[in-house]
Design a protein that fits this description.
Elements: E1 7-10, H1 24-41, E2 54-64, E3 73-83, E4 87-96, E5 102-113, H2 124-130, E6 138-144, E7 147-154, E8 159-163, H3 174-178, E9 184-188, H4 208-222, E10 227-232, H5 234-246, E11 250-256, H6 265-281, H7 283-294, H8 297-302, H9 304-316, H10 319-330, E12 346-351, H11 359-367, E13 373-377, H12 384-387, H13 389-404
Parallel strand pairs: 8-9, 8-10, 10-11, 11-12, 12-13
Antiparallel strand pairs: 1-3, 2-5, 3-4, 4-5, 6-7, 7-9
Helix pairs in contact: 4-5, 6-7, 6-10, 7-9
Bound molecules: D-malate.
């Protein structure tokens, strides 16, 4: 029997907000109740204490897919998503029993802690009880010209490809990769970033076109013909180039905090200055320069973990990866003329406090794309998908719903 059999729990009033909807803290409490209940029916509630350890929560990612109200009965399916030396990750999929509507998708990472409060390797009894990680999350290495890109692939269904911004990696999509469970979600680390930091970068020759060639190689390698393409900022510049060259492989686009015009001469000079700073002072200096542009002041103050995640992403990138991306952005084509030719459904999405690609820029871009809609995300700057994942996932989820019928 699984350590965590499927259980049903009722939503308590105190887990809901003033408008009677399950809120984030309530959802975490509800998931904890569900885990205890599942342990009681499965491996036993003393499975940890018998082994002399306790488990502490290290990280929570939670996507609200639809509202739940007091008295709703929810079905909680729990599986082991990952297991490492001292940590393990559980994935919860929560649906409403009455109509099967998905309510929450969550991933929680736990650390085993011994009696002295130190991280401890997972005891054998717990490893046995948890079993082997299952599920469909995979980080695949897919062949591209002179190397292999790391690509996170989750779930099954029509394909949804996330392209990250500068100087980040697929980690910026952590909350989006957890949602949209009827879709196959894919997020590569572009060459020079994340787990693709080791892939060769020809700094002189890197262009938006080379990023697109890599993405095409990834899709071919995974056997995928058409995608909904979701690009953030630099990933949006890549998306324009993708449309220019391979429109037949795109069935929808989500353009997040991006802009169609090329760099101005002043902007190009700023790219060169940033490359000089990188070569002089390294990735940390780039992180310090980028953080206040990527995250709003409120996020920086209230969500220190998001700032840490951004620092870690920038720290993982190779210097050539960053320099190559700066040059590819500096020399990119103007895509304004392309906008009128985008014939697939488009959602444009941007943070209300974004100074890099402010709402008027995004709104004008959307207005130039036939039928496109612009959604402004409150309380976010540039990196809206990380700062306001619930609002972003809601808008993206609604957009994807409109695409589901046409396969
Ligand atoms: C990004 O977020 O990808 C970059 O800030 C875009 C840019 O610098 O033009």
């Amino acid at each position: 029997m699984s350590a965590f059999p499927t259980v049903e729990v009722v939503v308590y009033p105190h887990e809901c907000d003033g408008s009677g909807r399950l809120q984030a803290v309530g959802a975490i409490a509800l998931l904890e109740r569900a885990r205890w209940d599942a342990l009681l029916r499965g491996a036993g509630i003393d499975v940890f204490t018998k082994s002399g350890v306790v488990s502490g929560t290290r990280h929570v990612s939670l996507a609200h897919l639809s509202a739940a109200a007091p008295g709703d009965v929810l079905r909680v399916v729990t599986r082991l998503a990952d297991r490492a030396t001292t940590t393990f990750t559980l994935h919860h999929r929560v649906t409403r029993v009455r109509d099967g509507v998905p309510v929450i998708e969550a991933e929680l990472e736990f650390e085993c802690i011994d009696r002295l409060g130190r991280p401890a390797p997972l005891p054998e009894g717990i490893v046995r009880a948890l079993g082997a990680p299952g599920g469909t999350r995979q980080v695949r290495r897919v062949a591209v010209a002179d190397g292999e890109l790391a690509v996170e692939v989750r779930g099954n269904g029509p394909a949804l490809l996330f392209v990250h911004g500068f100087p980040l990696d697929r980690g910026q999509w952590r909350h989006q990769l957890l949602g949209f469970t009827h879709w196959q979600r894919m997020a590569p680390d572009l060459r020079g970033f994340g787990d693709s930091a080791g892939v060769a970068v020809a700094v002189e020759g890197l262009t938006m076109r080379s990023y697109v060639a890599d993405l095409i190689a990834v899709l071919d390698g995974l056997g995928i013909e058409r995608v909904v393409l979701c690009g953030f900022s630099m990933g949006g510049y890549v998306a324009f180039e993708f449309w220019r060259r391979h429109a037949d492989r795109v069935r929808g686009m989500i353009l997040v905090d991006t802009r169609p015009e090329a760099d101005s001469p002043e902007g190009q000079r700023a790219r060169d200055e940033m490359e000089a700073l990188l070569r002089r002072e390294g990735n940390d200096a780039i992180a310090e320069r980028m953080l206040p542009r990527l995250l709003s002041r409120t996020t920086l103050e209230a969500q220190p973990e998001s700032a840490e995640q951004v620092r870690a992403m920038i720290g993982r990138a190779s210097a050539d990866g960053i320099a190559g991306a700066l040059r590819a952005m500096r020399d990119r084509s103007d895509s304004r003329d392309l906008l009128g030719s985008i014939t697939v459904p488009v959602l444009a999405l941007g943070g209300a406090e974004d100074a890099l690609t402010p709402p008027p820029v995004m709104a004008a871009m959307a207005a130039a794309i036939p039928g496109a809609r612009f959604v402004e995300v409150a309380a976010a700057a540039h990196l809206a998908p990380l700062e306001q994942p619930l609002a972003v996932n809601r808008a993206v989820g609604e957009f994807l719903e409109t695409l589901r019928e046409d396969g």
